Amino acid sequence: MTISNVALIGASGTLGPSVLSALQKSSFKVSVLNRESSKSVYKDTHTITIPDDLNVQGLTALFRENGIDGLVITIAGSYVEEQKRLIEAAFNAGVERIIPAEFGSCDSADEKTLEILPLMAGKKRVRDFLEEICGKEREGGAGKMTWTSLVTGHFFDYGMASGLMMFDLKAKKAFLQDGGDITFSATNLDTIGTAVVRVLEKPADTANKLLYIHSHSTTQMAVLDILENLTGETWERVQQSSADLLPAARKRMLGGDKHATEEVVSIWGIVSSDWRNRGSLANDMLGLPEEDLENILKGVLDGQK
Fold first, then answer.
1. Which residues belong to CATH 3.90.25.10 in the chain?
2. Which of 134, 127, 125, 57 is nearest to 95 (CA)?
3. Which of 21, 36, 93, 142 is spaced 20 to 30 A from 217 at the CA atom?
4. For residue 155, which phi and psi values (nearest 5 degrees)?
5. Contacts for 233-236 with beta carbons within 8 Å, 24 or more apart?
6. How far apart are the C-alpha atoms of 279 and 200, rounded to whole Å?
7. What is the per-residue pLDDT for 4?
8. Residue 36 CA to chain centroid, in angstroms?
9. Where do you find CATH 3.40.50.720 in the chain?
10. Concatenated DSSP letters for 107-144?
11. What φ, ψ does residue 146 adopt, rounded to 5°?
12. Residue 285 CB contacts under 8 Å (≥ 6 apart), including other chains
């Protein structure tokens, strides 16, 4: 199997620009899928205009017409039915590989996570659909389609800047979960982009797999020590209990509070996302080294100035 012509949908989101940049630096021919009503513009990038409703027949024709053999989806993971339509069209059009919108802060293959977070349950439904459709032979001897999902932990650099990692950079305040010494895995946006490219470059090794990656495994206290060293100041420590915070936030989340959903993802992605002992940790296979935490944090702080 050789992949040469890759389409990306979701290029203007949080992760999409980093994935697009990595693809454009690779040897792949790259296209961005852009809905008819979208105002996004991608300079010097081949753009394929797709129907707003993502109807399967229209998408299938466009994938065939443009010779797409790899599809990367970076739209919100909550768009389950939209992803299913993209997947069905890709199957019909002879696409070789799909990378769905997994990229999880939390692990959608973990039963406790599925119980706590409906968002992750949606990601599992997409993966279940992929496993089903990729198990089918296509007509005309086109063979089977394959998939790869990447579980990344929190988007580390983005999460530090946005507060998702439970640090307030401006107020110099750390909200430490369960003492702050729990090891968690997290990945920087550019590294996720690199991982996507490496997956597509190694189609045989990565076929039909849920792969875990990280830029580093660390703790909130380790991050705080570096932040205090870089800023030359002592930060305020706010000790929090995930056992107290999660039930209250989850209740608000189930009531429709979107901010509460972010809070649950934020906390759970810290206390339950240690990939070090996962059998599917793919850093070595994809050639992703552990990154220098101090340099990353320095860059995040510089971005706040």
1. 155-185+216-279+287-303
2. 134
3. 21
4. -70, 100
5. 233/172, 235/172, 235/173, 235/174, 236/171, 236/172, 236/173, 236/174
6. 21
7. 97
8. 25
9. 5-150+188-212
10. -TT-HHHHHH-HHHHHHHHHHHHHHHHTTSPBGGGTB-
11. -125, 165
12. 202, 205, 206, 211
Mean pLDDT value of segment 157-168: 96
Residues 47-93 pLDDT 10s: 999 999 999 999 999 999 999 999 999 998 889 999 999 999 999 99
Q: Token pair 């394929």 is at which residue?
A: 48
Let me know: does 265 contact 119? Beta carbons within 8 Å.
Answer: yes
| Residue whose C-alpha is closest to residue 187's, from 155, 151, 149 | 155
Could you write out the DSSP letters of every residue in 71-92? EEE-S-TT-HHHHHHHHHHHHH
Helix or strand run (H / E) with residue 293: helix 293-303
Read off the tokens for 194.
């690199």
Position 119 pLDDT exceeds 90: no
Distance CA(276)–CA(153), nearest Å, equals 12
Whole-angstrom distance, CA of residue 101 vs CA of residue 54 = 16
Give CA–CA dist 111/115, Å, rounded. 6
Choosing among 3.40.50.720, 1.20.1090.10, 3.30.465.60, 3.30.420.40, the CATH entry for 5-150+188-212 is: 3.40.50.720
Q: Which CATH number describes the domain made up of 155-185+216-279+287-303?
A: 3.90.25.10
Instruction: Read off the amino acid at residue 247.
Output: P
